[in-house]
Amino acid sequence: MIAVSPLHQFEIKTLIPIKCAGLDISFTNASLWMVIVAVFLCTLGHIVTRQTTIIPGRLSVAFEYIYDFMANLLKSNLGREGRTYFPYVFPLFLFILAANLAGMLPYSFTITSHIVVTFALALTVFVSATIIGIKKHGVHFLQTFYPKGTPLFVAPILVPIEIISFLSRPISLAARLFANMVAGHVMIKIFAGFVGMLLKTPLALFSILPILLNTALTGFEIMVALLQAYVFTLLACIYLNDALSLH
Predict the structure, then answer these.
(1) From 49, 74, 223, 226, which residue has the greatest number of CB atoms within 10 Å?
(2) Is 1 a member of any domain?
(3) Which pLDDT score is estimated for 1?
(4) Which residues contact residue 200 at a Cβ distance below 8 angstroms, ignoring those fewer than 6 apart?
(5) Hey, which residues does 27 pair with through a beta bridge?
(6) φ and ψ of 14, to 5 deg
(7) Is the entire prediction scored with pTM above 0.90?
(8) 63 in a domain, yes or no?
(9) 125 within some domain
(10) Closest alpha carbon to 185 in 232, 225, 212
């Protein structure tokens, strides 16, 4: 029996090899699931917005609940100005949520288990918030690193700390989502392996224990998928608020 590493599920596999100017831009399993998630969300949005019945169905109610939830999240963090950024934040939340949950399907691929994906998402938030802050405040955006009223003698210590903290935002945002998704899937894979091992021994009856534990872990991982999508979006709102308010 060949043992399969719990990390094998995160392996990038080339589906359609593509070379361009010496660069490998092949279509992979990760690319496939990004397309699947995007198509699913577009289709879902089309179906929901096409419904014209007076009494909304369950799908419409669920979608409206998520819509209101995100609208309130933006309002509580950015005030009325948050409406401007709803078209960006709402799809961001839906994509991360759908990508996280898609990774729970059998034979699927967890897009957000790769740091390059989560970092790309985090970088868009960081760059967008920075551009918005500079566009609104101009040179005064530098007050982010040296708040108004701070004693001058503190500047040599405060400014480098604030710059490092500011630049580390996309790294911490990406690492948080990536680490949580990887850890949960690895744990599920490990306990699933225990079940397979026990079934081939005289102790097969005891395989019920890791099965029950794996069931609980699966439910917990679904909660983590929901929570991490919320946390990522919440931090995106906070970064936008910092850029607008110079906090």
Answers:
(1) 74
(2) no
(3) 45
(4) 1
(5) 16
(6) -75, 125
(7) no
(8) yes
(9) yes
(10) 225
